[in-house]
Design goal:
With 179 residues, the chain is α+β, with helices and mostly antiparallel strands. The protein has 3 helices and 6 strands.
Length: 179
């Protein structure tokens, strides 16, 4: 966060024959030696959204080869979320399926944060667009199906972990057209 300091000297308003010396008029925003931290809810919301977006980015990267063991997945997801992602990627791997397209387009919004004064759990609501993120047979390059993908309602629960990192602990993706 940058602090803006401005200074203005108003010499036009002083009479020319004024013999008293007055200090110049300045409008200065004082710099705070110890700036107050952003509100805990804002910090939690930003870190939770970052973890949520990171999870989808890691899924997109791992999905290119269906690498269910990618260590990047665990940086952003844990518990039920990580298990669901890993199981899905393993199934794709066994079936010779990869995912292409760089991931869904996201527009996450914080739905709730608990406890309100210093959140440790954030619920995110999203309407992700999977139109460009589809599954293909790795060997032939053919699409797995003729489904075009589309907008899907997504809900995710993100929690701060013992190591201080925010990770998605569970998420649900509704069907195409659900948002």
């Amino acid at each position: 966060m940058a602090l803006l300091t401005t200074s203005c000297t108003d010499t036009a308003s002083a009479p020319e024959n004024d013999t008293a010396t007055e200090p110049p008029v300045t409008d200065t925003i004082p710099e705070d030696d110890n700036p107050t931290a952003a509100e805990p809810r804002e910090v939690a919301a930003a870190e939770a959204v970052e973890a949520y977006e990171g999870m989808w980015s890691a899924m997109a990267e791992a999905g290119e080869t269906s690498d269910w063991r990618s260590p990047v997945l665990a940086e952003f997801a844990t518990g039920e979320a990580l298990s669901a992602i890993s199981r899905g990627m393993y199934a794709d791997h066994r079936n010779g399926v990869v995912t292409r397209g760089g991931g869904p387009e996201l527009a996450p919004e914080v739905d709730s944060a608990e406890p309100p004064e210093d959140p440790t759990t954030v619920v995110i609501a999203d309407c992700g667009d999977s139109s460009g993120w589809l599954k293909y047979f790795e060997e032939s390059g053919e699409p797995v199906d003729d489904e075009p993908g589309g907008r899907q309602a997504i809900t995710a629960e993100v929690r701060v972990q013992e190591d201080g990192a925010w990770r998605v602990v569970r998420f649900a993706v509704q069907g195409v057209g659900s948002c």
